[in-house]
Design brief:
This protein is mainly beta. It is built from one helix and ten strands, in the order αββββββββββ. An eight-stranded antiparallel β-barrel has the order 1-2-3-6-7-8-9-10. A two-stranded antiparallel ribbon has the order 4-5. A hairpin with a 5-residue loop joins strand 1 and strand 2. The mean pLDDT is about 80.
Length: about 190
């Protein structure tokens, strides 16, 4: 019972701060991912979930999770008979999560547009390789149209870079389309 009372008091303490927020949105997205300057993976699919809130006009913050599956790479050695052979290398799966900062209009009805900057954890898993886990940095642009029923249709383009060791970088681009539901916290 004591824990419930503490949680209730914390929520009651922060309620005025919640009224100052423009609300928050959460929703899934699906898209396409492209490795940039990388021969060890082919383009594949991406999906995830975003949550964001507007702290003040033209400034927002949010959390994200995404998962990507890159297609396999086909390597051909000595093309032709009798000595040629083909090898397939697993493109791998990337899982990342982190926090984004939004500069621009992220809440309210109508057209919202913003720049995105983020930092997060980036894990790349491939067959026959050790799992890489690095810090990833991202930049991008987003555009969302919020309908009167608090449903937003969003398009994003993100460029992500993570250290790959040996003074090299893993770079990728993600183009996605998603749907967000906007919850209003303040008085209606």
């Amino acid at each position: 019972m004591r824990k419930i009372v503490i949680v209730f008091l914390i929520l009651a303490f922060f309620t005025p701060a919640l009224y100052a927020l423009d609300g928050f949105s959460i929703g899934p997205y699906y898209g396409y991912c492209f490795p940039v300057i990388n021969d060890w993976a082919e383009p594949g699919s991406a999906y995830g979930i975003n949550a964001k809130t507007s702290l003040m006009p033209f400034l927002g913050v949010g959390l994200y999770f995404n998962s990507r599956a890159y297609d396999d790479v086909e390597l051909v050695y000595f093309d032709g008979e009798p000595f040629g052979w083909t090898e397939y290398i697993d493109g791998g799966d990337v899982t990342s999560y982190g926090i984004n900062l939004y500069l621009g209009k992220t809440g309210g009805m109508g057209l919202n547009y913003y720049a995105i900057g983020g930092i997060g954890s980036h894990k790349w898993k491939r067959d026959y390789k050790e799992e890489d886990s690095k810090v990833a940095y991202s930049l991008g642009l987003g555009l969302e149209y919020v309908l009167p029923m608090n449903l937003g249709i969003e398009a994003r383009g993100i460029f992500e870079a993570a250290s790959a060791g040996n003074k090299s970088m893993w770079r990728s681009a993600i183009a996605s389309v998603g749907v967000n539901y906007h919850f209003k916290l303040g008085p209606m």
